[in-house]
Amino acid sequence: MTDDGIRSRLVRYGELVPCRTAFIDAHTPGSDQKENFTIIGGGVSESPDQHVHIKDAPGFNIGAAGQPPRCRNSLHSHETAEVFFVLKGRWRFFWGLWGSAGELVAEEGDIFNIPTGIFRGFENIGTDYGMLMSILGGDDAGGGVTWAPQVIEDAKGHGLILANNGRLYRTTEGESLPQGVEPMPLLTEDQLQGYPEVPVEHVVRDYVARKWDLMALAKGKPAKVIGEAGLLKDRPGFEVEFLTRGSVADEMAARTKDTVLVPVQGHWKLRWEGDETVLNPGDTVLLKPGERHALEPSVSGEAGLYRITATDDPAGPTWRW
Questions:
Q1: What is the mean predicted confidence (pLDDT) over 152-162?
Q2: What is the pLDDT of residue 321?
Q3: Averaged over 263-274, what is the pLDDT?
């Protein structure tokens, strides 16, 4: 994408391009209807079919997962941050090697900073198509995804092999691994000992924030959600704030780091030098350092928006375990 200003870095929710073959479980019953979206950065897709909307690398990735009811994302782990906030629907998150260590239900606007180094999955338990927005730590978020062994084994029975080069090969369509490329090895029993079964009370206390709590905290100023001084204390290479009505003044100002805006509720007017637009829930815009802009809810009623800002912290394991 040619960068000719803020409007060139605005992706509308209705224009998102899905990939239905992004991951190893794309053919596994129960997971075969999910859609993956890469909005900013390279994302974590294992498929060359993945469309990337904005290829900038601000130090984190923005993506989304869309799933119909009862469709699930299989158990996997990350070496850098994986943060989800619910745009549409009702979602069940579960974790542990077999998904039985704990679970929680998240509603629209809730945010979950899933700790690195644990297996996690999620399922749409609502009645309609649901959408999760994601923030992934680092420019190369695809370099740190590990699947639970049973996921790789199940996929093999449905014609998908994940290779040690991070690419998927579809044996049912005549694809085979290139010479010198081997299947991704399964984690050994000793390696699996390094993936803890974290108690649910620990996860909910330290890594989950509910929208209604954030609405209360954000009156008068943005609520610090993820960061060294955030409600969820972490240093994943970015900070997350929640904005609502009265959190920001309609005054032109510039930020010093790459910043992403994603409304989750209501409509927000974004103004910049010589232009303006209205952001709707699910729209994503990337603002570069030094770009003067103003932001405020454009109509009455409830309004909520997540603002993600790059920091100088390196992407890596969860800061506080």
A1: 92
A2: 47
A3: 96
**Same domain for 174 and 104:** yes
User: What average pLDDT is seen over the chain?
Assistant: 93
CA distances from 310 to 227, 228, 263, 279, 305 (A): 11, 13, 18, 21, 17
- Residue 233 resides in a domain: yes
Q: Which of 208, 228, 262 is a domain's end point?
A: 208
Q: How far is CA 2 from the centre of its chain?
A: 24
pLDDT in tens, 43-99: 777 878 889 999 998 999 999 999 999 999 999 999 999 999 999 999 999 999 999
DSSP readout, 211-267? HHHHHHHTSSS-EEEEETTSSEE--SSEEEEEEETTSS-S--B--SS-EEEEEEES-
> Of all residues in the chain, what percent carry a pLDDT higher than 70?
97
138 and 21 in a common domain: yes
Residue type, 313: D
Neighbours of 245 (CB within 10 A): 16
Q: Is pLDDT at 2 greater than 90 in this prediction? A: no
**Structural domain contains residue 269:** yes
Rg (C-alpha) for the chain, rounded Å, is 19
Number of domains the chain is built from: 2
Longest dimension (CA), the chain: 61
Distance CA 134, CA 87 (A): 10
Helices (H), 68-218: 149-156, 189-192, 200-207, 211-217
166, 198, 275 from 91: Cα distances, Å: 28, 19, 37
Task: For residues 124 and 224, state if they share a domain.
Answer: no
* Domain's final residue, options 180, 208, 236: 208
- For residue 265, give its domain range: 211-310
CATH of the domain at 197: 2.60.120.10
CA-nearest of 286, 268, 306 to 113 is: 306
Tens of pLDDT along 183-192?
999 999 999 9
